[in-house]
Amino acid sequence: MLSKLSKAVAALAVMIAIGVSTPSTAQTLRLNLEQLEQSSDAVVLGRAVHAESAWTPDRSAILTRVTIQVQDPVTGAPIGEQVLVVPGGQVGDYIHEVSDMPTFRVDEVVAVFLTAHPSGEMIVTGGWQGKLDVVQDPATGEKRVLGASFLLDDEVKGFAGKHEAEASAAAKTAMSVGDFAQRVRKLKRER
């Protein structure tokens, strides 16, 4: 039987492994589209159909399990449901926010870069950068991936400790869903 200290150390190791960090050290290496694709086991376009947050067994953190109904398995995933785990969430009155991690809302349409964690769970690659919103252009009806053009910047380097301004800038750039999927598939073929 593990002691409380052993359990705490084990929980900390798991949280570090899946990208949970404290606000004072939270920074995410900025990645471009090629780097995100290379670091991912799958890239999917789909709709978040379910999200449920729960405490970890030792109650040291809250994790949210998100179910994505895959509409386009861009690379590495079948059509159907894909479940992923994101650090953070809300259980009752307790809110656990994790810096640099994406959040999901039921019914939002997204493009998500996914990595298989050693635990067997799928996680979002690159923190907040690995989840892109998909919206429909009201003028043309075309579905567009917000921020995808931002990821084409080959000069993406350094650390982005505060991603809000970058996310705002990324929202001003968009790429059609078809172009996004085509570029990601091309990168996958070139590997």
Estimate the global geometry from the Cα principal axes. Answer: globular
CATH overall fold name: OB fold (Dihydrolipoamide Acetyltransferase, E2P)
Main beta-sheet strand count, sense and barrel state? 8 strands, antiparallel
Rg to the nearest angstrom?
17 Å
Number of domains: 1
Low-confidence stretches: 1-25, 154-164
Protein described:
With 191 residues, the protein is α+β, with helices and mostly antiparallel strands. The protein has a single domain, classed as OB fold (Dihydrolipoamide Acetyltransferase, E2P) (Beta Barrel). The chain has four helices and twelve strands; from the N terminus they run H-E-H-E-E-E-E-E-E-E-E-E-E-H-E-H. The strands form three sheets. Strands 2, 3, 4, 7, 8, 9, 10 and 12 form an eight-stranded antiparallel sheet that branches. The chain has a two-stranded antiparallel sheet with strand order 1-11. Strand 5 and strand 6 form a beta hairpin. The relative contact order is 0.19.
Task: Describe the structure concisely.
The chain has four helices and twelve strands. By secondary structure, the chain is an alpha+beta fold. The chain starts with a helix and ends with a helix.
